[in-house]
Amino acid sequence: MNDFLDYIEHFWISLSSFPFVIQIAIFFIFFSCTATFTFMVVVFAVRREKARREKIVRELRPRIFSFLRNILISKDAYSEDEVLDMFVENFGNLTKKTYISLIPTLEDVVKQEKHQLESHNYDSIIRGLNIDEYLEKRLDFSNTRIRLRAFQSLSRLDLTISDSKILPHTYSKNASLRKESRSSYVGVSNNEPFKFFDQDNDLNQWDQISLLQQFVLHHKDNLPNFSKWIKYSDDEEQIKFFIKLVAYFGQDTSVDSLSEYLEHPSHSVRREAILAIGKMQVKSKENKLIKMYFTQPLICQNAIIEAISYIDSGKSIGFLKTAYEMASSHDTKKLIAEVIYLYGKSGRAYFEELSRTETGFNLLILEHVKNPLIQSSLRNHHESKQKKEGYSMVDVDIKTKINQENIPPINP
């Protein structure tokens, strides 16, 4: 040991005699080697921990899944103590190691058996295995990733906890934690779940998807009126999100608020309002959309074409003909051609007429639209609508050709 210390002392004395540039170079080499070694150790530790967790989940998941599902779907009512005793008998005492597999496995069971969330046995599983207490404790961890996962698990398992546990995180300086906690607050709060909608929340696409899931999971039967946030919010992204929610949940009472946003200065907000009116099939606004079509930017024009397709009143084929003839963009022409193709008998008849008269690239557009292998949101919408009404696009094709050829249909 003394020899090693003597060597270090000799090296340090020798280093001080080197030129300053050499000293700096040696320092950076030493620093780089130390940083690289530290990084490799951290990576190794993280990978080892991940492999350990995956091994635990892989070994226990099938058995825990069957155990939890059998209790959940059982016609017999189990108490909290009975669930705990059965779990201990099969898997041993509840430990941190057990929860590594238990929580994600329970999430999978809940995803498969959503209709059982209100059952007595589900409450017995949650309380008997202390799921809610375990997740609440993880909200107090310093590791942000652990807290994010805890919020996500609380939401997926449809668990409610005290506001005092969530609120501190909803004002966190960490943007990811703040957004996730506010999203989870909508689902897991016992008091004022929508309070943060009165503020600007800087919502990106992923945040919007997460919030929509919260509404579907927890508030589908008790939705707030979104129009108040549409009217009083100054955040464009938040306004567009609430417009989408109005359309998704079909809130007819918000139609007047949507109509006001047809004149909004922002093209993107105006586009969302147009699409929402279309998806809600507000036929009283169809003429207004047609009148404003030729004064709108391209994204709003395309939205109006889509809205006409969603409304599907059968009265706008003349407008669609004019829009198709005046379209200068190939993408717009394709969209209008698809809407004409899907626009009932009159639309299909005009589409067939175009197929006989168009040439070159326009004819390729029509062939593209007709191809049943090429799916689109509009095609899927109309196909699902036709299935509900008991006929298909093939039936429309046959009837159109019969009308064109003036051949009487053959009755079976």
Estimate what percentage of residues fall within beta strands: under 5%
**Termini distance?**
103 Å
Taken in chain order, the helices and strands follow as HHHHHHHHHHHHHHHHHHHHHH
The number of strands is: 0
Helix vs. strand class: mainly alpha
Radius of gyration: 31 Å
Give the biggest sheet.
none
| Contiguous uncertain segments of 5+ residues | 398-412
Shape: extended
The level of helicity is: over 70%
Number of helical stretches of at least 4 residues: 22
Instruction: Return the average pLDDT rounded to an integer.
Output: 81
Protein name: HEAT repeat domain-containing protein
Transmembrane segments: 20-46
Keywords: Membrane, Transmembrane, Transmembrane helix
Organism: Flavobacterium litorale
Task: Describe, in plain words, how this protein is organized in 3D.
The protein is mostly helical and 412 residues long. It has 22 helices and no strands. Among the domains are: 223-313, Alpha Horseshoe (Leucine-rich Repeat Variant); 319-412, no CATH class. α7 packs parallel to α9 (175-188) and α19 crosses α22. Helix content is 72%, strand content 0%. The protein has helices at residues 2-16, 20-73, 80-91, 96-112, 120-128, 131-138, 144-156, 163-170, 175-188, 205-218, 227-232, 236-249, 255-260, 267-279, 286-292, 298-311, 317-326, 330-341, 344-357, 360-370, 377-389, 393-405. The chain is extended. The model is unreliable at 398-412 (pLDDT under 50). This is HEAT repeat domain-containing protein. The chain crosses the membrane at residues 20-46. InterPro entries: ARM-type_fold (IPR016024). Keywords: Membrane, Transmembrane, Transmembrane helix.
